[in-house]
Here is the input.
Amino acid sequence: MIEDGTGLFTIGELARATGLTVRTIRYWSDEGVLGPVTRSAGGYRLYDTESVARLELIRTLRELGLGLDVVRQVVAGEKDLASVAAAHVAALDAQIRSLRVTRAVLSTVARRGSTAEEMTLMNKLARLSAAERQRIVDDFVEETFSGLDTADPVIRDRLRRIGVDLPDDPTPEQVDAWVELAELLRKDDFRAAMRRMIEFNAAGRGPDTPAGTSMWFIRRLVELVGDAMARGTAPEDPEADALLDELLGEGTDRAAVLERIDLGQEVARYRELAAVISGAPEPPRYQAEFSWVVAALRARTGG
Here is the structure.
């Protein structure tokens, strides 16, 4: 404090009192954030004790990342500090989400050993909005079901709803799963396998078949085969014939059913990835039960 009885500070004294540099205080003063209360006869800027408190507020706001324009408005009383803090929290949340996506993408790149082109694609896929992700899935579902009006609508609805629920703050595993799923939807062999599976579904249904029958078939398969396995029945045993007739119906083309089941197992990765993206438990694949049916069908069709 200058010794003239005014209780005022020069910039140097203010710097010593606050621990800030003279250069910083001068810059903030030049920007109109901390104006001097007066000037000395020699033209030097002078500040009062209230300036010390204001300077501490400015420093805190700057350390919290607020821009000088906003700080100026808060110090001048033009903006409410609480509303500014709330807006800054929202901005930080968005920044944190972006950083998490960046970290997840880089983690995937490091794990995969991706090329620059692959990294660019991954980054674009990871930063898509929910609506953009939904559009990718919708286009895939539309192509898969095109012209197959008798296909089970429950399957169509499930395919549309899974795989797009990437959280705002995804883990590296969730970003990796979404990127893999998006890449999977672009692969010709996967699209062909999914289309073939839906063609099988549509061919086995009529216009009056209740929606959701396909889901009932899977539950029935797991139940019947699970009981047979518990009894020790092997796929090659004669008793398996009766089980296949009960499950599929007599006279059913078993070779076609075998191909359909094989396709279903091929596309199971889609459901697994969707579960990772949504954070849901991994869906059961019932591999033992389906393997039993596949073995029973192959034993009788030579497949």
Summary: The CA atoms of residues 66 and 154 lie 50 Å apart. The chain has a mean pLDDT of 83. The longest helix spans residues 81-112.
